[in-house]
Structures are given as structure tokens and as C-alpha cells.
Amino acid sequence: MSTPRILIVDDEADLRELLEITLIRMGLDVDSADTLTAARGYLQQQKYALVLTDMRLPDGQGIDLVCEIAAMEKSPPVAVITAFGSADNAVAALKAGAFDYLSKPVGLEQLRTMVRTALRISEKAPAMAGNARARTSIPLRLMGESEVMQALRAQIAKLARSMAPVAISGESGSGKELAARDIHAQSARSDKPFIAVNCGAIPEALMEAEFFGYRKGAFTGASEDRDGFFQAAHGGTLLLDEVADLPLAMQVKLLRAIQERRVRKVGATTEEPVDVRIISATHQNLHACVQKGSFRQDLYYRLNVIELSLPPLRERLADIGLLSEAILARLSPGTPASLAPGALAALRSYRFPGNVRELENILERALAFANNGKIEQEDLLLKASETSVLQDVLSATPLPAQNTVARQEAAAITSGLSDGTPKDQGAEMALPGSLPDHLDQIERDVIRRALAKTHFNRTQAAELLGISFRQLRYRMQRLNIHEPE
């Protein structure tokens, strides 16, 4: 196996010499160029495992070289060297295709760590590019064969080669953590830790200790040294889930840790280097949070170098069958349950405000009602079908006089929901204090009236309401409706 070769592009002779000595001591072959023209000549003659370029060169900008290499068919990883405090240049280079960056003065330990990561990328690239079976052997967690999901997986494969921070956005339940795990699984860091942190679940007083660790005796209860999330993820990936929930004081400390790649434990006097790739995720609009002052703009630009947007489930309903099959296989191992055609059609016509997480909940609940593992449409108990049943009953027979206002409000609500657009009733209808409680009361009144009309014959009441006996029994239990003594 040939020795990996590195190309250094920098017009400062002293820095070139320092980089050359360091890399040669690591057992690597090195070529050096002091201009863009010389670097282009080397790239035409040699294949490199890493290109390390300064941002400012006598005959051009290093970012131009980054773009040219990124456009090559088999491009090596490119890292850039930026002047101290030039964060904007580093972010621009990462967006252009650079996989990492170093700040001047160059830290040799940071350089060695970055080079090792780049070499792992170069070693994995041929196998991943030339062997389809190698690509499919990666345990992908985001499932789906729709066009939008295929495009998403292709984007994830590209992001996996970079060290650039990724900001994942998407609705709650759309699979943001799964996307982060897929990025990690396909990266050169896949054999290192993946640490997921819910930023909204940590008390503010404990955040610094949880993220950066602490020394023994740093505070009451600190009986021993302890590593934080950054140390636990060293060499791997750190997912900051619901990052918008971080308080401003912690955002300042996080920004420094990301910029300097060093952290200081609570109670310590010195910093320690950490090699961590940052992925952030949130269901909130971070740009809007910046505008209203709840999220720091400089941290936003640090985290949002590359944005990955996840589609809601309602935009890929063609994947419902595949997702349901996988979920049911997990929920009922050994003898997997299955969906009847009517049930699958009902799921594909549902909007899923809770996305894939809601689909899992619906199927888990449906299994409790299903006979012999066969899930029928009535077993799903979809919210949309409940609204439709309520509307049918209201139009069929009037409610008692004392519930006239409730009937008018319910009719307005259901007519608005029928086309997905709420109707504005203005001053004619007062808004309820709690919509779920309000709708439950309306449904409770309708069911009680149907039961009274059939002298509490639940089978006939279910037929009158247009639902199954099992659905009626479930609703009676949920709404605490009992037969009068």
C-alpha cells in the first residue's frame, strides 16, 4: 500500500516548512506549492489524500482552489488555513466544499487530528464510490423510496464527507435525529461515538458541567472528575437536538468551544482540545429566533453552515406502506402484523401532523384493536375520521336545545376542518379556552344522545354514528361515558 501524499499550498515559507516537518514525521509524503498555479500543476500530475491550502495566495484565493477540487470527479478532501478571527472565511470555505479548516497560528495537535480524519475519508472513498454493495451495507435509518427521500439520502452522503457543521430542520417527528445518525454512519467518524443531547432537557444551572465536564471539588456534589458531552463525543459526532432552547449564556460558551475546538471543565484552569463534529437540530425557525433576539447571530452562522431540511410525512405519502411494514415488524416480532388495503388507503389520505412519530403511535394503538394481527381501517382511529363522523351526526339530527351554541360551534369547526382551512367566525363565536376539551364535550354529547336514542344499545348506537362497535367502546372509555344505573 502506497504512502498517502499531502499537498500544501501556502506562500509563507516558514509555515510551509513547519507543516512539511509535522506531516513527514507522521510518515506521509508531502508536496508544497506557493501559488495557485503551482498547486494546479501538482493536481494534474498526482493524486492526493489531502490538500491543505491557505486562503490568501499571491495569484488568487484559496477558496477558488476549493471550488475547483470539489468539482473534480474523484476529489480529495480539502482543508483551508484561515487568519485568526476570520470566521467568515472559514464558513465560506466549508460551504464551497472544504471538509475542515485550521486557524493561524496553526496548532500542531489540531493539525494531526485533522489529517488523520482526512486520511480516513480518503481510505473510505474508493470503496464507497466503486462498490454499490458497500453503499447499501451502511445501516440507513431514514426509510422511503419517494423522490424526495432519494434526494435527501444523496445529500446526506455528500455531507458525510465533510466536517462542516450541519443544521437539520424539520417538523417534530420527521426524523431529525435519524438523519444525524445517518450522516455519522456514513462518515469517516462512524467508528467513533455519536452523542445526542436534548438541549431543552438540561437545567440551566447544570448546562456548563454537562457539556464540558467538571473537576473534583468544583462544586458541592462533585466528588470526582467527570467528562462532559464534548469529551464523550471526542473523535465522533455531537448532536445538539432542539438547539434553539439553549439559554443565551450557554450559547456564548458553546460558540467559543466550536470556534476554538477546546473546552475547559468547570473548576479547571486549562483548556483541553476536542475533535467533534457538530450537528444541530430544531423544529423552530432559527433565523426567526435570531431576529427576535433569543438566539445569537454568530452562533447561528457557525451552526448553519450547511442546512438539511427534512420533508414532512404528508409530502411523501408514497412511503407510508414501507414505513408501516417496518414499524409493524418491530412492534410485533415473530409474526408481523399487516395492514388491510382499506387501512393503508386511509393512512395515505391522512395528513400526519405528528409525522413518522405519529404513524408509529397510530399503528401501536391499532395493534391493540386488531384481530389476528390484521389491522382494518376502523382500528386506526384516525383523527380525521373522527371529525367526519361528528359532522355526519350533527347534520343528521339536532342536539338538544341547551346545546344549540355547542352545535353551531362544532358545525363551524368541522366545516373549516373539512377543507383544511379554519373558517373565521368573527364575533359570532367565542373561542374555547381549551380546544381539545371543547371538542371532547361536543363528542360526549353526541354519543350520549345516540345511546339515549337506542336505549343504550351500543351496537345500534355505533351503526347510527357510522362507526364500529370497537370504536364506540374506545370513545366511551376515553370520554368516561357509562350506562346509567
Summarize the structure.
This protein is of the alpha/beta class. It contains 22 helices and 16 strands.
Task: Walk me through the topology.
Layout: E1 5-9, H1 13-25, E2 29-33, H2 36-45, E3 50-54, E4 56-57, E5 60-61, H3 62-70, E6 78-82, H4 87-96, E7 100-103, H5 108-130, H6 132-136, H7 147-159, E8 166-169, H8 176-185, E9 194-198, H9 207-212, H10 229-232, E10 237-241, H11 248-260, E11 262-263, E12 272-273, E13 277-282, H12 286-292, H13 297-303, E14 306-309, H14 320-331, E15 338-339, H15 341-348, H16 355-369, E16 374-375, H17 377-380, H18 383-396, H19 404-418, H20 435-453, H21 458-465, H22 469-478
Parallel strand pairs: 1-2, 1-3, 3-6, 6-7, 8-13, 8-14, 9-10, 10-13, 15-16
Antiparallel strand pairs: 4-5, 11-12
Helix pairs in contact: 14-16, 18-19, 20-21, 21-22
Structure commentary:
With 485 residues, this protein is of the alpha/beta class. 48% of the residues lie in helices and 12% in strands. The protein has 22 helices and 16 strands. A five-stranded parallel sheet has the order 2-1-3-6-7, with helices on both faces. A five-stranded parallel sheet has the order 9-10-13-8-14. The protein has a two-stranded antiparallel sheet with strand order 4-5. It is elongated and about 95 Å long.
